[in-house]
Amino acid sequence: MALSIEQLAQVLNRYPGIKRYWIAYSGGLDSHVLLHGLASLRSHFPDASFHAVHIHHGLHADADLWTTHCASICAALNIPLEIIRVDARPAPGESPEAAARESRYAALRRLMHNGDALLTAHHQDDQAETLLLQLFRGAGVEGLAAMPHASEFAHALHLRPLLEVTRAQILDYAQEHSLHWIEDDSNASLSYDRNFLRHQVIPVLKTRWPSVQMSISRSARHMAEAADWLAEQARVALASCRTEDPHALSMSALRTLDEYLRRLVLRAWWKELQVPLPTQAQLQHVLRDVLQAKPDATPCVQWSDVEIRGYRDRIHVLRQTAEHDPSAMHAWDLQSTLTIPGLGELAALPSMHPGIRRSLAGRQGFSIRFRRGGERLVPAGRGFSHSLKNMLQEAGIPPWQRDRTPILYDGEQIVAVLGVCVCESYQSAAGEESLELQWL
Q1: Does 212 share its domain with 93?
Q2: Is residue 106 located within the same domain as residue 55?
Q3: What pTM was computed for the model?
């Protein structure tokens, strides 16, 4: 039985409120069928617009011809087409498939807006191949859930309306409507894992189990249900481990969880922060070297551009930061925003809390500097001098942030230290409007 327009309409009706559909159109069989089918049912969705997007990877000798083909098909169907060129060349050691996929989806994310939906032509056979690939890679429950029917994508939705449709049904539809599509010769290359499964493994499985794709797709749905349940458990547990800093969790709270839930919580946290996920070995280092470290230790586990650090009862996520010169000095009048290269923008904001006297704004001679060693200051209310090192420790400033903590000077006299204290002679009076140093 061939794919029907009614099937597509039923899928789209499950997700009301979409204002614009973007059809990912490569020009191949699957995406051509999806494009043709959606063009045929536009009248069912008068409040939405339908657009196609073609990603020009620049990897194939015929890539320009494919773009011309896609443009002519879209023109014939009266579907507006967006053509996006990307650099899909893989980095050294990177899979060509992964590089093309990442560049493609990065471009598509930039295209999406609120109220949009991206439609891709993944079908039941693709789902079976994806689950098998994940299985052979040793994926967990979430990986074995393979591809969902719908998921969040940038500011929009990603829908796969053909996920319950077989490749054979798609071919029947194309032949019935006399469609002409691009045949990418790379789809026959057995050097790609997915092609090897498609041409060598699954045909053998089908000789024994003819409905193997349907069965595997059903297993993916079961795994998706299990993954959803586990994600909810992780969300609840993550809430119990949060601190006032979204980039830090309580280590003592994490230690109360069993190890499996601890892993789920950390992965859920990193996904929320859009941090690249670690390998199993790297995750094990976090669980052992950071969470089980001695109280006075400052462990660090690194991967990609990520650092996971422990300090006191906090586990912190940091991304690689720009170079910072701790010997730099920045003149500042406390009135305008101060941009500090490698760190960000600093402001002196009005406040009714104890802080720097408001009357000092606009005065000359102020500057922002950074710790060099041996500094001393007289914090308000203390009555005698303290070392800056001890004040930073007392305030709980992690060691890796201390050389990046701004210090406000008046000539050679310390006025205030961001997040730590204001010095006695510069402190505002009770009830007086003050200034508070803050990163923007």
Answers
A1: yes
A2: yes
A3: 0.72
Below-50 pLDDT ranges, the chain: none
Please report, for residues 121, 363, 402, 417, the alpha-carbon distance to residue 430 in angstroms, rounded to integers and kept in the order given. Answer: 66, 22, 29, 20
Are 57 and 103 within 8 A, CB to CB? yes
- Beta strands at 116-119 and 20-24: parallel, antiparallel or unpaired: parallel
Residues 31 and 165 placed together within one structural domain of the fold = yes
Q: Which amino acid is at 284?
A: Q
What range does the domain containing 21 cover?
5-222
| In 112-211, alpha helices (H) | 124-136, 141-144, 167-176, 193-196, 202-208
Tokens of 48: 């939405």
**Residue (of 129, 138, 145) closest to 230 by Cα position:** 145
The pLDDT value recorded for residue 2 is 66
Q: Are residues 89 and 172 in the same domain?
A: yes
Kind and range of the H or E run holding 365: none
Task: Please check whether residues 56 and 178 belong to one and the same domain.
Answer: yes
**Across-strand partners of 408?**
368, 416
User: Domain for residue 248, yes or no?
Assistant: yes
Residue 302 in domain? yes
Cβ neighbours for 113, distance < 8 A, ≥ 6 positions apart = 20, 155, 156
The CA-based diameter of the chain, rounded to the nearest angstrom, is 89
> Do 286 and 412 have their domain in common?
no
* Domain end among 319, 340, 365: 319
Spatial neighbors of 328 by CB under 8 A, at least 6 apart, are: 340, 341, 369, 370
In terms of Cβ atoms closer than 10 Å to its own Cβ (0-12, 13-18, 19+), residue 125 is: buried
Count of domains for the chain: 3
